[in-house]
Amino acid sequence: MSLFKIRTFWSVHCEEDSSYDQNSLLVTKLNHESDFLIVGSHSGILKVFKPSSDNFKEYTPADLLIETILKEPILQLSCGRFLSGSSKVQLAVLQPKSLNVYDLIVKEGATEHGVQNILEQLYVHKLQKLAFNFCVGPFGGVENRDFICVQSLDGLLTFFEQESFAFCCFLPDVLLPGPLTFVKSSDSFVTSNSNWHIISFRYKLLSEAGQNSTEGGNVSKFSSDWSFNLGEGIINLDVVQDTTSRITFIMVLGERSIFCLSDIGKLKYMKRLEFSPLNFINYFLNDRIMSLVVSETNNLLIYQNTSLKWCSQLHVSPISFNRGFVCNTNGVLVLLQEDGTLSCSYLGTEPSLFVAPPLALQDLDFEKAGQELTKLHKIVKNTYSNDIKVTNASTERELVLNVSVSPNLEENTLHKAINNKICPISIDIMPHTLFEEVQVTVVVDYPLKVSPQTEFFHNLSEKTTMTCCVFMEKPEEVSSLNVQVVASFISNLGVPRSVMKCAMLPLNLVLETCAPCKESECKVTLNINQSPVGLSALFPEYILSSNNNAIAFKNTATDGKVVTVLLAKSSERYRLQSDSFASLNLLVEEMVIRLKKHYSNVDGFSITSNSFPPVNTIVDCIKTHFYAQQKFVSLQNQITQLGAQLRLIQKRLIAKFKIKNPTSLANLELLLGDTYSEIMKLTEEFDEEKNNLVKSRNKLSSVLQLLINITKLMDVNNKARQLIESAFNPVIYDLDGQSWEDITDASFSYLLRTVLAKSEKDKLRPAQTNFEEVKDVSKIEKHLTLILERIPKGMLQESPSLLDEAEQENVDTEDNNVTESLPIGSKIGESSSQLLLSRRGLTKKS
Amino acid sequence: MDPLYLALSLFRRRKFDKCAEVCSEILESQPLDQAAWCLKMRALTQRVYVDDIESEDLYEGDFLDDNAVATAPRPGTSIKTAAPTTSVRPNTSTGRPISGVARPGTQLRPGSALDRLKTARPASQSARAIRLGTAAMYSQKEGPFIQVSRLNIAKYAKNSGLSKPLFEYLFYHEGDVRNAMELAVQATQFCRFEDWWWKVQLGKCYIALNLIRDAEQQMRSALKQHHHVESFIRLTRIYLRLDQPLSAVEICKAGLEIFPNDVSIMTELARLYENLNETAPSVKFYRSVVIEDAMNTEAIACIGMYHFYNNQPEMALRYYRRVLAMGAHSAELYNNLGLCCLYSQQLDLTTSLFQRALDLAIDPLIKAEVWYNLSHLALSAGDLELAVQCLNLCLSSDSTHASAFNNLAVLHHKMGRINLAKAYFTSAAALDPNLYEPKTNLEFLQIPRRGGTASALGRGTTKLAARSVRPAALAARGGAPRTGRFRAQNRTGRAHSSDVLPRSVPDRSRVEIGNLVEEHLCRLIETALSGSAKARVWCLWVLCVVNSPELGIAPEWGCGGTVFRIFLSAHGEDSFTERALICPNSKELCQRSEHCFNLH
């Protein structure tokens, strides 16, 4: 990214089907006033250009002075005083097996087109090894002469003193040859090696080693003058001399940074580049080093030491470039592209502002657009702004679920049914519109199981039936025979909806008759206000003699307690008794349903009961569940801790292993093994405890169901009953960090503070706004006892009125504390109506 | 031409694929040619090389990490406990202050370190390296170039010409940190611990293996031998991972002494200060960066954003225009330009800039942000309906946009759909626990008769102040609107709604008021902690409730009309005039009272 763009005024495409490299371009004056642009390709074609000195004219064929075909590829071009006895500058061309020196002779003609340019070969040096690159300079401090040093691909330096061969020597440790330059001030050669060092060799040392090897034949070792550890691959090397103070700097372009070293190998500065550089050139201006770097992203960046002075966008990516005196202008950028396009450019100072492509926008017809807008507004309003659409109210109209539970059980062993009995359920789904995705889920309580539990329908448009079957999975007490079917889908307005249907499973899926027991510990009495009906009429599916007054059930799969149903004809009572309250629930529920069904056409029929389960039983259940839960959590924590420990030991072991001087493991391996086996042990224990927890949960759930069922039969206010029902939530979930007790305790304290408040003091209890973790079971026990005491004592008679008043949105009731502590969210709807009321009140006053 | 020369030339011209091909040909005829082998290694490495300093992820603490120095660091000594911002600059979804450019560290998705640990593989640095390795391997036709398992590492460690390219190959191309480290360990031993480069590489390996302290040791040792910009930056990163920003700053400053005005180090320092929530030094360094390197998009964008959040949208506009002129052409940039124009009153440009932003936004997250900011445009035009629709569109692109939920809720509340508002507030609070606006708003909604609602919503809309546009690849984004104008609008419209007042105050016994005060003091502390000015209002409110009926002290007017009106409605106008006689600055009170009644 840059503000400016490079402007090209002269450009020529050199050649098809050939490639050019970093060293393929030479910009030199060659004994003349302005620069020649000399290009040598890998296919061996040498071209000399000289743009006409007229004002920035474009390329004309006359600008090409010479084109020669050399047979071998041209690797590098350079110039210097290579002819002995002459102070003129000649051209040196490196080819893989030879070094050629040419002289460019210009014969002036009478007219401009009469000028003759001739490239004359002066001499050729044959090379022993394949060349890589070369450098020229006054080696050894000679005056007015330039010597040549050629580096071969395997690191052999061959020196030529003009026409004669001087000596050759091997650079030490060369794997891949690097760039090579000569530093005049220290009379040494600087190059890089594969170890990513910049190394410098004195010419004197090299020549001594070279003389020895040619004389004695053995290669003597020589050491570097200095080396600098660069730490990254080297792209190019350059030498810059301060013209006034005669200080020389070595510039290094690495793969990631630019370095500036002094001629004795000390770092002067470095700069990390945020792009991949391709090539660079350096020159000295006003006591500062200027570096021109070309990036892979086609930017030309000009640095003055480390600060960026200019950045310009290139339209090409040059492989080699240089500054030159062209068209009577100093500092023209000569760029050579890889495909051979040679161009002369200057930095454009006029910013090329980025112009974004225009958006394809149509002109609006305002009237039409206005109409469309109103239409769309209407649609949007209907879709979004209606609260009712978000609620679940009208779902039934869109999708109807029919659940039919087959009264006849099937024998099946395929499923993991404990008692081989399965109860098929068929669900009819009747959509009224097309639904893309509908998911139907069937839920039953543990230990019952349903299979398949979920079914997914795509593009549902007509009546579909889903069948599944329910069976007992574990030999446990069954807490409820309720089966819930939930269909969830996205309505055609894009709102998620759900439909729920409930059904009861047949009793004989889980219970079977057995011999009645006379006496049992736990009893529940159901009173009815009609003459009682015989048990045989109530349970027609079990064959009973008509005057039988007792029937007993027990769980088909387990050691569950026997439940006996007794009929007391004279006192219009049914008594259910069993040894455990957990087993009673199912039958109480069933009895209530059956009785209600039987008397469905009798007006004023009611069932009442006062036989509240003793507090102890419930408390026991809660305690069992609580302790199981605590154990469960503590095991979980232990496993977490041990897991962390294992990781720490592993870390420690790694640390031990990587120490340079190995020390003993200090029995860490034992610790590791122990921790591992401990984790395994705990995991097994955890599994067991999980089963325990599930069992206790199931039992608690049964007892709570019973409690609720009986509360339903008791003579309490409807509103309060609902509150109590929701407080004793029989569906028990123990989540991470929140168990059933935590939630229940919160609701208990709420109940005690509001509907079941006994005194003013109760009302002033601090509101429990968040669900705290219950640490002590005795607190919940206390609350439970209080609640169970107060429910039958008719505490509710007075308090519900409070609640009702609060519901009336009466402004006067606001002084009641009770209203303040209503559950979060239950009163929000009121505020707007209150707003109206209070405003009305105020206007009246003022 | 000689194939090796050709390969070298191709390498120089950055044609790495072709270079590797040529090398393979050489190796086929001469399998033991070390030069070709080395060159091929380097070509393959360069082909997949990614600057690992720039791509380094901001690390978030592992709770098992024993490297962290303090578990409860003092304020200012840790990135986590950086001084909370008082400015309006929003935070990112991870709770860090938003930055002007998208960097790997700024792009983390929300979720705690704990959540990330629950995945199979713990968060580690090497993940990216491993991915790179597999990607590189996939593109090789005839199996891997080097069978790492058969590599005689000890042999190559002693070959100084081969060891470094081999290390880079193993580290970057293969992503095999373990073997690379093995090589580095042996090589550094071979050169008698005299090569700083190997120490830096060892440090890199240690970081990848999460052995931070060892990495620190290696880097420090390397820095003792040789000063290198990269070493300084790497050491800084190590201290960031150890959550010691102050040490990191120190290292950067030491680096700046050796490399004065180095852009990389100054950028690092500026980012560091930005993370520490110290915007002033951060911008100072960004400015120095721009002086040194005027093309630094990151610095320009960050300074632009600084101005934007400092209520200087015109200045910000200049910076963003500069980025635009440099050729950046992205949805984020147009979005920011649009926001700057909006707040510097150049409304004619605003819509067309946003149009461009929408046109360019492909990423749904960016699209969501643009729509979100458009909703502010609609708000400042007073078109609530349009604002709601913009927010809905925002949510349809990004359903986890907490701020949009909050603002939508506020708007719905204004329209009287309180249930809906509450639902939206709840989802906003659930989506971003760092966002305090929905929480405050919910709190106000929960005590509807305490005189809260009106001011609550007033505040709520203040909170409409929104979050900025999320990061994207290039740069230049930032701007999130504040709601200066909107707030003002709201003030004027508020007088009526504040009528929702508790009428219960006079009926309370003294004790009850005591309880009430207690409750409100708690809230007061809470809100004071969240750093908002409403604490003061609450404080006065409480004082007023306690004092006014019994002690006859009139409410202070400065705390806003709410308190006063509570008082007023509680006592009726008769008692008000009575009080006015008693209280010291009664004259003013009387005037105010008249004004107040006029409003009704």
Integer tally of domains of chain A: 4
Indicate the low-confidence ranges of chain A by residue numbers.
797-836
Shape of chain A: elongated
CATH architecture descriptor text of the largest domain in chain A: 7 Propeller
Radius of gyration of chain B: 31 Å
Distance between the termini of chain B: 97 Å
Largest sheet of chain A: 8 strands, mixed
User: What CATH architecture of the domain at 349-500 in chain B would you give?
Assistant: Alpha Horseshoe
Sheet/helix structural class of chain B: mainly alpha
Helix percent of chain A reads 25-40%
Largest sheet of chain B: none
Shape category of chain B? elongated
Q: Which topology of the largest domain in chain A does CATH recognise?
A: Methylamine Dehydrogenase, Chain H
Question: What is the spatial order of strands in the main beta sheet of chain A?
Answer: 22-23-24-25-1-28-27-26
Seen as an oligomer or otherwise, the chain set is heterodimer
First-residue to last-residue Cα separation of chain A: 68 Å
Q: Could you name the CATH topology of the domain at 349-500 in chain B?
A: Serine Threonine Protein Phosphatase 5, Tetratricopeptide repeat
* CATH class (first level) name of the largest domain in chain A: Mainly Beta
> What is the percentage of strand-forming residues of chain B?
under 5%
